[in-house]
C-alpha cells in the first residue's frame, strides 16, 4: 500500500478485530466509520468504495450521511445487511438479484457476474494461452500464502498421475510455509517455485493445465484462457466453484470416497489424455471474462462525467459486433430474434465495411478504451439514414444511451454541410430505447410503422448540433 502511486490515507487505529467471521460488532463499525469520516471528509468524495466482509449497513449509512456521498460495496457472500447505491459481485451466480434480495436495505444497482471481474489490465492486454493438444507443463497457484497448504500435495498428484514434465508453483515470500514447501519438493528436478511475480498473466499463459484455488485468480485464468482444475480453499468459493464446473469453465475436485490427493491425481490423469476436454475448458472460461470488468465498474461510478469517443468499425471488430448482436436481450428486442450464425455475420459485416457510402458502423468507447456499444447508420436515400444501436450488456442501465447516440450521430452529420433526417425504429416494449430517442428530441411518428409492434422516431439533425 505504501508503494502505490496513489495517495494513501491511514486510519489512526485498527478497530475491527481481524480475522473476523461475519459482521463486526456495531460499536466497532461505528468507531471505524467515525475515523473514516474524519480522514475522508476534507476530500468531499462523490463515492466511497467499500471492500470489507465485516462492514455492514451500519457503517455504510453513517459514512454516506456524514460525507454526503454514494456508497459502492464489493461483496460475494451476501451474509449481512447492505446499504449501498452500487453493489459489485464479480462471482458467477444464476440470479444475483435473488442472492441479495434479503440483504439490501434499499434498491441498488447490482453489477453481478464475471463481466465485472476486477482484473488488472495485464490479463486483458497480456499473452493469452495458445492451446496445445499435449500437456507440456502444469502450473500450480493456490493463493499467495497457500493458506490450506495444498501446493506440495498438488505437485505430488501430478507425479502420481504419470506426468513427468515441468511443474511450476507460483507463491509469495509472504507464504509462511515457503521453507517447508521448498524442502519437501527439493528432490523434484523438473519442478520450479516462482516467488513474488508482479502479476500472473504470463504464468497462466505458459502452461497447458493449471491447478488453482477457486478465488479471484479463477477469473484471471479464465481471461487468459487456461484450463483449470479448481480446489475450494475458502468459504466464499463453496458456491462459485461447483457452479463454474456446471458451466464447463473448470473442473472441480473434492475428496469423496478417497483422499483429495487421489481425486486430484485422477483428474489430472484424465485431462492429460483428453485434449478436447481441456480445449472446451479454455473456451468456456474465456467466454466468461473479457478483462474489461474494472473499467465497466469505473464507468458505472463515473457515468455522469464520462466523455465518450467514437471511431468507425474495423475488420478486427467482427467478433465484438457479433457478441453484442447475439446478446439475448438484443435478440429479444430485435425484429428478428433468431441467433446470428458466425458465417452469416461475417458476410454481413464484410459487406457493410465495403459499403462506406451506404452504411457506417460507429464503435463507442469510454476514455479508458472500454467498448460501450455500436451505432449503425444505413442510408435510405440522399438525406435520410436509419439508426440501429446496441449497448454492451455490462453497461445497460448506466444512463449512457443518450450520450452514446448523440456522439455517434455527431460523427455522421459532420460529414455533411446540410441537415440530414435520422429515422429510428424501436420495438414498442423497448422502453429504454424509446426514452433515449425521446430524450434526444426525436419525434414519434403516428403513421403506421413497417412493423406493427414498433415505434418509429424521426429527427432532422443539423451539422451544428
Gross morphology: globular
Strand line-up of the largest beta sheet = 11-12-13-14-15-17-16
- Approximately what portion of the residues adopt beta-strand conformation? 15-25%
- The helix-and-strand class reads alpha/beta
Could you name the CATH topology of the largest domain? Answer: Rossmann fold
What's the architecture of the largest domain, going by CATH?
A: 3-Layer(aba) Sandwich
How far the N terminus sits from the C terminus, by CA atoms, comes to 47 Å
What is the count of DSSP helices, taking H or I runs of 4+ residues?
17
Query: Which CATH class of the largest domain is shown?
Result: Alpha Beta
Key features of this structure:
single chain; 465 residues; alpha/beta; Rossmann fold; Aminopeptidase; 3 domains; seven-stranded mixed sheet; six-stranded parallel sheet; 17 helices; 17 strands; globular
Structure description:
The strands form three sheets. Strands 11-12-13-14-15-17-16 form a seven-stranded mixed sheet, sandwiched between helices. The longest helix is centred in the N-terminal third of the chain and has 15 residues. It is globular, with a radius of gyration of 26 Å. The chain has three domains: 87 residues, 3-Layer(aba) Sandwich (Rossmann fold), CATH 3.40.50; 168 residues, Glycogen Phosphorylase B (Rossmann fold, 3-Layer(aba) Sandwich), CATH 3.40.50; 160 residues, Gcn5-related N-acetyltransferase (GNAT) (Aminopeptidase), CATH 3.40.630. Helices cover 34% and strands 19% of the residues. Strand 14, helix 16 and strand 15 form a beta-alpha-beta unit. The protein is of the alpha/beta class.
Amino acid at each position: 500500500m505504501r508503494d502505490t502511486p496513489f495517495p494513501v490515507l491511514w486510519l489512526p487505529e485498527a478497530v475491527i478485530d481481524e480475522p473476523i467471521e461475519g459482521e463486526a460488532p456495531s460499536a466497532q463499525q461505528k468507531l471505524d466509520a467515525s475515523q473514516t469520516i474524519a480522514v475522508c471528509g476534507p476530500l468531499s468524495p462523490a463515492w466511497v468504495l467499500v471492500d470489507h466482509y465485516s462492514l455492514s449497513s451500519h457503517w455504510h449509512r453513517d459514512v454516506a450521511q456524514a460525507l454526503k456521498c454514494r456508497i459502492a460495496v464489493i461483496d460475494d457472500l451476501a451474509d449481512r445487511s447492505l446499504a449501498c447505491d452500487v453493489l459489485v459481485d464479480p462471482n458467477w451466480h444464476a440470479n444475483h438479484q435473488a442472492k441479495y434480495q434479503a440483504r439490501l436495505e434499499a434498491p441498488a444497482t447490482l453489477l453481478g457476474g464475471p463481466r465485472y471481474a476486477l482484473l488488472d489490465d495485464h490479463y486483458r492486454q497480456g499473452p493469452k494461452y495458445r492451446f496445445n493438444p499435449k500437456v507440456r507443463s502444469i502450473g500450480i497457484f493456490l493463493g499467495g500464502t497457500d493458506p490450506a497448504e495444498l501446493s506440495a500435495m498438488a505437485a505430488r498428484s501430478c507425479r502420481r498421475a504419470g506426468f513427468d514434465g515441468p511443474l511450476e508453483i507460483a507463491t509469495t515470500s509472504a507464504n509462511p510455509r515457503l521453507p517447508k514447501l521448498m524442502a519437501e519438493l527439493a528432490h523434484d528436478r523438473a519442478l520450479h517455485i516462482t516467488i513474488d511475480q508482479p502479476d500472473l498473466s504470463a504464468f497462466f499463459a505458459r502452461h497447458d493445465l493449471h491447478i488453482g484455488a477457486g478465488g479471484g485468480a479463477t477469473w484471471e485464468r479464465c481471461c487468459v484462457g487456461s484450463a483449470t482444475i479448481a480446489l475450494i480453499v475458502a468459504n466464499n468459493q463453496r458456491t462459485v466453484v461447483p457452479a463454474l464446473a456446471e458451466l464447463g469453465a473448470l473442473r472441480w475436485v473434492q475428496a469423496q470416497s478417497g483422499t483429495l490427493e487421489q481425486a486430484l491425481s485422477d483428474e489430472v490423469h484424465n485431462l492429460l489424455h483428453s485434449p478436447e476436454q481441456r480445449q472446451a475448458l479454455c473456451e468456456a472460461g474465456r467466454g466468461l471474462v473479457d478483462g474489461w470488468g474494472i473499467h465497466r465498474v469505473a464507468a458505472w461510478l463515473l457515468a455522469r462525467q464520462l466523455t465518450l469517443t467514437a471511431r468507425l468499425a474495423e475488420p478486427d471488430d467482427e467478433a465484438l459486433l457479433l457478441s453484442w448482436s447475439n446478446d439475448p436481450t438484443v435478440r429479444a428486442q430485435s425484429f428478428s430474434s433468431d441467433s446470428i450464425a458466425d458465417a452469416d455475420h461475417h458476410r454481413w459485416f464484410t459487406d457493410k465495411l465495403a459499403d462506406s457510402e451506404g452504411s457506417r458502423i460507429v464503435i463507442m468507447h469510454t476514455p479508458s478504451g472500454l467498448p460501450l456499444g455500436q451505432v449503425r447508420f444505413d442510408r435510405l436515400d440522399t438525406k435520410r439514414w436509419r439508426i440501429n444501436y446496441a449497448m454492451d450488456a455490462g453497461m445497460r442501465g448506466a444512463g449512457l444511451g443518450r450520450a452514446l447516440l448523440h456522439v455517434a450521430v455527431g460523427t455522421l452529420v459532420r460529414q455533411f454541410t446540410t441537415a440530414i433526417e435520422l429515422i429510428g425504429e424501436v420495438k414498442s416494449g423497448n422502453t429504454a430505447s424509446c426514452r433515449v430517442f425521446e430524450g434526444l428530441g426525436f419525434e414519434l411518428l403516428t403513421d403506421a410503422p413497417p412493423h406493427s409492434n414498433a415505434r418509429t422516431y424521426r429527427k432532422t439533425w443539423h451539422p451544428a448540433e
